[in-house]
What we know:
Strand content: 5-15%
Structural class: alpha+beta
Order of helices and strands: HHHHEE
Distance between the termini: 24 Å
Mean pLDDT: 79
Amino acid sequence: MGVSEMAFGTGASSYTVSLTLSVADVRALWSAAADRALAAPGMTLADVLDTIGPREDPSIVDCIAMLTSPAAIAGCALESFEVAEADAGLAPAQIIQLPTQAVLRAAHA
């Protein structure tokens, strides 16, 4: 199927995008997540600490969610977003699911 056929097709399709991470440096992860959070309008350090925890005892799942939460994608509606902590073959121990809303088709830049 060519690009023009996909762009003007009548049916919607669902796709799954997976990302698996190993955390090698918790402090670097926390710093990057804190920087991203502080960039949001009105966000304070107290808000950051409430959201991802302190640098000394961060919520790894919340830090990863802060950094990997997808931005709006033109022509798409986000159906779900989850960050799960895997544990050696066991079921996920913690799942963070952000509320989603339909994303309207964005104008092409």
